[in-house]
Request: fold
Amino acid sequence: MNVKNYVHFKFLSLPENVSFARSCVGAFASQLDCTLDEIEEIKLVVSEAVSNSIIHGYDNRTDQQIEIIVSILDNRTLEILIEDHGKGIKDVKQALEPTFSSDPARMGLGFTFMKSFMDEIDIRTEPGAGTVVRLKRSFPAHDQKNYA
Ligand SMILES: Nc1ncnc2c1ncn2[C@@H]1O[C@H](COP(=O)(O)OP(=O)(O)OP(=O)(O)O)[C@@H](O)[C@H]1O
Ligand SMILES: [Mg+2]
Reply:
């Protein structure tokens, strides 16, 4: 994979940083050949993953760190890594099930949105150490843009 561009940023686990992170990744993704609706989908999955880190990973503690690395691979693939050093996920298979939530007040749909809007989702997690969610989605290659 050829990395054409990337942005790497780190921020505090404050709820107001959810919108910062989603706008930041949305702005970066707009250099790809994607529609405004697709940008909205990218922004949504970023909010879901960052909210999960704050709410579940850090139990709403606001003094922790979240890191995002967003890259463009081979001119056409967006890869987003969202990393926290929170409590981790005990059972990933169960966490990925639609409507599963460890909090009865929540819908349990965050991972379902991530799965449906992205081509690939990969979760690395360790109880007590944290979680990295890797999301990938491909768009038409730049050099094919004018011929599509
Ligand atoms: N970063 C994380 N750290 C620890 N646990 C997580 C993390 N992300 C997800 N989880 C666990 O996975 C479950 C499923 O996450 P998902 O986003 O699908 O649903 P939810 O956050 O519970 O509800 P919703 O996203 O609809 O508000 C969560 O309830 C939580 O137990
Ligand atoms: Mg969620």
